[in-house]
UniProtKB/TrEMBL annotation, chains A, B, C:
Annotated protein name in UniProt: Trimeric intracellular cation channel family protein
Keyword match Mitochondrion: no
Subcellular location: Cell membrane
Glycine transporter domain: residues covered: 12-80, 96-166
Organism of provenance: Tardiphaga alba
Amino acid sequence: MPHTEALLFPLAMVALVAEAMTAALAAGRRNMDWLGVAMLGCITALGGGSVRDMLLGHYPLWWVQSPYLLLLTGGAALATIGIAQFVHRFHTIFLILDAIGLVVFTIMGANVAMSMNQPLLIVVVAGMITGCVGGVIRDVLCNDVPLLFRAELYASVSIVTGLLYIGGITYGLSPDIVIAAAFAVGLTFRLLAIRLKWEMPKFVYDSETK
Amino acid sequence: MPHTEALLFPLAMVALVAEAMTAALAAGRRNMDWLGVAMLGCITALGGGSVRDMLLGHYPLWWVQSPYLLLLTGGAALATIGIAQFVHRFHTIFLILDAIGLVVFTIMGANVAMSMNQPLLIVVVAGMITGCVGGVIRDVLCNDVPLLFRAELYASVSIVTGLLYIGGITYGLSPDIVIAAAFAVGLTFRLLAIRLKWEMPKFVYDSETK
Amino acid sequence: MPHTEALLFPLAMVALVAEAMTAALAAGRRNMDWLGVAMLGCITALGGGSVRDMLLGHYPLWWVQSPYLLLLTGGAALATIGIAQFVHRFHTIFLILDAIGLVVFTIMGANVAMSMNQPLLIVVVAGMITGCVGGVIRDVLCNDVPLLFRAELYASVSIVTGLLYIGGITYGLSPDIVIAAAFAVGLTFRLLAIRLKWEMPKFVYDSETK
C-alpha cells in the first residue's frame, strides 16, 4: 500500500493545486477577498477527503496530519489571482488537470476505504465522495446549485474509476497496473465526456405540489 | 433494544423510501440529472442520521454498516422519475409517508442517543437532528432557505415525539407501548398540523442594519 | 489549562449569547418561525466549535457534554425576537459583543487544538474555524454567500489572535498574560477594522469560461 501511495502522491499534489485554482476562479466570480479565495481553495481541494474521513470515522484527517497541504492549496488559490487574466488561454489545461484530480482523488478515496476493510459499495462511495464533494461544498459556499447534480459526467466517471480500481485489486492484479488502468480509463472517459458533450438524461419535474 | 429495533425496522424502510422520493421531486424541480437525483435521494434520506452520528461520535454510520440502504434510497429516488407524472394523485399518501418518516426517524435517533447514555436534552436533540436535518441538507443543495426554519410544525412534531418517547422509557414503561404511543401522537400531531395549517408565529425583522 | 478555561469561561458565555442574537436577527430577515430562530441561534453559536471537533476527532462535543449551552443560545435567540425593535439602538454594542465572540472563540479553539498537541498551523486553523465557521453556516442556511469570504477583516482578526496566542504560549509566557494580550490586540484590531472600514483587496474575475 505505501508503494501505491508513492505512485499516486505526485498526481495528488497536481490534483490539489488544480482544484484549488478552479475554486479560486469561482471565488473571483463572487468577488471574494484574498483570504476568502485562499480559504475556498483549501476547502474545495481538501473538503472531499475531509467529508469522507468524517463519515468513515477515519482520523486524523490528511491535512491535519500534513498541514503543509493547507499552504499548498491556499497558496495555489492566491497565485491564481495573479494569473487569472491568462487563465482563459489555459482553459484546456485546467480541464485536464481537474479531470486528473477527479480520477486521482477517487482512487485515493477508494484506497482509504479498502484499507479500512469497508464493503465494496462503501469503497466506491468513498471514492466518489473524495472526488466530488469538494466541488459540491464550493458550489454551496458560492450559493449555486451544485454542478455535480446537474451537468456533465462527473460522478459517473468517479464511479467507473472506482469500480475498475476495486475490481482489479479484488481480482489480485498488481496495484501498479490497476491504478494505471483505472487512471487511464477514468481520465479518457472524463475527457471524452467533455469533448463530446456527453450528458446524462435530466429529470425535469414541474409542479406546484410540494 | 434489539426488539425495539425490530419493531421500528419496517417503518424505517418505508420512511427512507418516502424521504428519498420527496428528495427526487425536489431534484426534478432543479432539473438535476439521473445520478444527481439518486445522490440527492441518498443524502436526504440518510443525511439526518449521518449528521447525528458525526456529532455524537457514534461510528460506524448506519449506511456504512448496511450499504444496501444506499441502493434502497438511490433506487427509490430513481424510480420516482418514472412515476413522477402520477405523483400529484398520490400527494396525500406522500405527505403521510413523509410524516411517518419524521416520527420514526425521531424515535430511532433518540434511541441511538439513549443507548449512548446521553443526557435527556441531547436525546431530544438527537431525535430532532435525525428527523429533520436530511430535509435541511436537501434544501441547501437545492439552493433554498430550509423549509424547516420557515414553515409548518415539523421540528415541533419531532420535539414532542422525542419528549414522549424519552418520558415513557424513563418512567419504565414497556418500549413497545412507548414507541406505539409516541408514533401515534407524533403522526397525529403532524397530520393535524398539515390539515389545519397550524403554523408557529414568525419573526419578521427588516432592517438595513447588519 | 483549567485556569485558562476559567478565565475564558464568562467571556465565552457572553460570546455565545452575542452570536445567537445576531443569528436571530438574520433569521428574522428571512422570516423564520420561532423554533427556526432558536435553532439558527444554536447552530450559529455552537457550529464553529462543532465543526472543529468533528474535523479533529475531538469528542464529545462541548454542547453534547454541557447541554445547557443549547438552552442558553436558543433562549438568547428567542429573547431577541422580543427586543428586536430596540436592537438598532444597540447596534454598536452588538458589534462589540460579536467582536468579543470572534476573539474568545478563536482563543478557545486554538486552546483545544494545543491540548491535542496539534502542529502550530493546525492550532491557528482550529482557532479560525471556531471563530468563523458558525457565521458561515448561518449564511449558508440563510441562502447567502458567506460574508466571511467577501467582506471585512474577520478571518484575518482570527488569524492574528491565534498567532499571538500560540506565540505567547510557545515562548513560555504565563497563559493569563498571553490570553489578555491576544484578546486585547484581536479585539482592537477588529474594532479598528470596522471603524475605519479596513478591507482586504478583492479578487474580481469575470468570465464565461467555466
